[in-house]
Design brief:
single chain, 445 residues, alpha/beta, Urease, subunit C, domain 1, TIM Barrel, 2 domains, 8-stranded mixed beta sheet, 11 helices, globular
């Protein structure tokens, strides 16, 4: 007896694309067979030529609840995720109020999430100066790892750490074999030129030089080697760090790296002035730099791609003024993770199987979910996205489920339409509809 059988000619497995039938029982993949078995099956569907891929995992999302739900919130963020084929999120610690740097704050966030999750959601804890005594309490609560900033986070309650702070916190994190995620910009080493025009994108780009990233990553590689702590560099934008990351890997150091869709899709030369929807930190850099990011991704120096979905209300984004220096630095893109990456990848003749590696299989490793999520294989959770890689659509505000319809992808023509999303063998999204709601769970180790 099986609960679900999905037949198709393009099933994306770790071994490659194959034709067959995926059988599911009690939310788990039981088998993948060439043909339907002679057995009782509650629900049978045939997706034909559409792609069946593991549910997408995005381990870098700012949901901002409790305390800043007017920025996003669990309901809208996880609904957007479901519409985009994302079945698992891990939420960052800094934009909620209180920030997730204590066990008490973790309890408040978990309570806020209850009953609002349309997909699964885990939490990162925060590392800030003087919260070292809270780290093991947060671990006992179920954080999947920790996040630290080497420069101002934008949130005063989440200050950046220094090398001294990291020498205190890293040994604890390393002892528990958890990852330390780092926003890698050291803003004290190089003085950028003065900004004469706050609406100029070039001026904003120059205000956050690549060397800030390169110096910060060099520091984290040294600390990784000293303590053998799992260090993860979030949203890499500087190609200047690729070589030192390669060298760290050659030494066998546990350093991993992500980049974001916007660094692979946009180039600084094409960004108009005063368009604050494009503002993020680190900034979107020049085409030559970003082509090197693509190469590093294809060579597996960059492990995976995550959105860094970081929305804010229109006033904070300075939409009216176009002031790039004052605007909140964050790009809203959660629902568009798959089509944005696929649209850019297909121009490079990159196969669909790489999408599954960059959006599903490899992101599962960071929060320690690789034994249950990110693959279509026996024993794994029946989390799926069914999508059409050949179908094109235009991004409109009406189709987005984010709380604020502000995104640099507005009106872009993208390939890759998500037709269905399945969570633990249940259909949670289908062609604009949400057949069942609130099926997501809080993920802990």
């Amino acid at each position: 007896m099986f609960d679900l059988a999905i037949s198709g000619r393009n099933i994306c497995t770790p071994e490659g694309m194959r034709e067959g039938v995926v059988l599911v029982h009690k939310g788990i993949i039981v088998d993948i067979l060439p043909n339907l078995p002679a057995a009782a099956i509650s629900t049978e569907i045939d997706i034909g030529e559409l792609v069946l891929m593991p549910g997408i995992i995005d381990p870098h999302v700012h949901i901002n609840e409790p305390g800043r739900t007017d920025w996003e919130g669990f309901e809208t963020a996880t609904r957007s995720a479901a519409a985009g084929g994302i079945t698992t999120l891990v939420e960052m610690p800094l934009n909620a109020d209180p920030v997730t740097i204590t066990a008490d704050a973790f309890d408040k966030k978990a309570a806020a999430a209850e009953g609002q999750l349309h997909v699964n959601c885990g939490f990162w804890g925060g590392v800030v100066p003087a919260n070292t005594p809270e780290l093991e309490k947060l671990i006992s609560k179920g954080v999947l790892g920790f996040k630290a900033f080497l420069t101002h986070s934008g949130i005063d309650e989440f200050p950046n750490v220094t090398g001294s702070d990291l020498h205190q916190s890293i040994p604890i994190i390393a002892r528990h074999h958890l990852p330390l995620l780092v926003h890698a910009e050291l803003t004290t080493n190089v003085q950028p030129p003065p900004v004469n025009n706050p609406q100029s994108y070039k001026s904003y780009l120059l205000s956050r030089p690549r060397q800030w990233e390169d110096d910060a990553i060099a520091l984290m590689i040294r600390l990784c080697e000293q303590y053998q702590c799992r260090v993860h560099i979030v949203h890499l934008s500087s190609a200047g760090s690729i070589e030192q990351i390669k060298q760290a890997r050659q030494k066998g150091l546990p350093v991993t790296v992500e980049t974001a869709q916007h660094y692979l899709y946009f180039n600084a030369e094409e960004i108009p002035d005063a368009q604050t929807a494009f503002k993020c930190a680190p900034p979107i850099r020049e085409k030559e730099n970003n082509e090197q990011l693509w190469q590093a991704l294809q060579e597996d120096t960059i492990d995976f791609v995550a959105t860094d979905h970081s929305p804010a209300p229109p006033a904070m984004k300075e939409i009216s003024s176009g002031n790039l220096m004052k605007a909140w630095g964050g790009i809203a893109s959660l629902q568009l993770a798959l089509p944005v990456l696929w649209t850019a990848a297909r121009k490079r003749n990159i196969p669909v199987t790489r999408m599954a590696q960059w959006l599903c299989e490899k992101p599962a490793l960071l929060p320690g979910l690789q034994k249950s999520k990110g693959r279509i294989a026996k024993g794994f959770d029946a989390d799926f996205v069914v999508w059409d890689p050949n179908k094109q659509f235009r991004v409109t505000a009406e189709a987005l489920h984010h709380k604020h319809k502000i995104t640099p992808y507005m009106n872009q023509e993208l390939y890759g339409v998500v037709e269905q999303t399945w969570l633990a063998g249940q259909l949670i999204f289908e062609r604009g509809r949400f057949p069942v709601l609130n099926k997501g769970k809080i993920i802990t180790p």
